[in-house]
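Table S2 (continued). Query chain:
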Amino acid sequence: MRITFLGTGTSHGIPTIGCRCRVCMSPNPLNRRNRLGVWIRDANQSTLIDVSPEFRMASLRYGISEIDYVLLTHAHADHTAGMDDLRVFSQRSRGPLPIHGNAHTLADVKSRYRYAFRPPLPHGGGIPQFALREVTGDIPAGDWKIVPLPVLHGPLPILGYRINDFALITDVTVIPDSTLERMRGLDILALDCLRMRPHSTHLCLSQSVAYAKRIGARRTYFIHMTHELEHEETQSILPENMYMSYDGLELESPER
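Corresponding output:
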């Protein structure tokens, strides 16, 4: 199973509009971060976790030509604003693209993209076709075992996902014990890590490291980072087997 990080930044992205801090102005490409998205595939299937505003450009850059379904963590714009560009996949398959998420997320998607759920217009424009599928338990997916990971994004209940021995949890403040139990034996963990200072709706670096130690994945990669975290400097203080992710990072998780 191959995993590509399409974007590893927070909602503002890096460079942040109008900012001239040393990270936003850095010549190091590892400090340039689009909004969050991950592409996962093997020989039999291909999926996305979240669909950022940069999804189209990421698809062209990394060669995404097939998507079988989408897993949404939550409906905030930096995680869903690229969904109109999913229409090419429903056009090719001549059927709706399955979109998985919790009830609150799917309700927001239906409201934000309401034109996608109306009868086809008799003139102009392509319209995406979505089949909304509420996540209430494990998701059947061929050779993959997809397990939802309920967490809290401040007061908002959202989802992470475990696919075989890879798991992603973004935009989180609290990971319940019941969710931690679902994450035993991970090979790769991608985990929210906003900045050095505490935040009301995200983990800061020290909290991310503490959770990563509790989870005990063989490798942990931090995601959803602001311009307060310079790549090389932050990497230099991370514990063993914990890493700063970056846009374009490709990983492999072994077959079960």
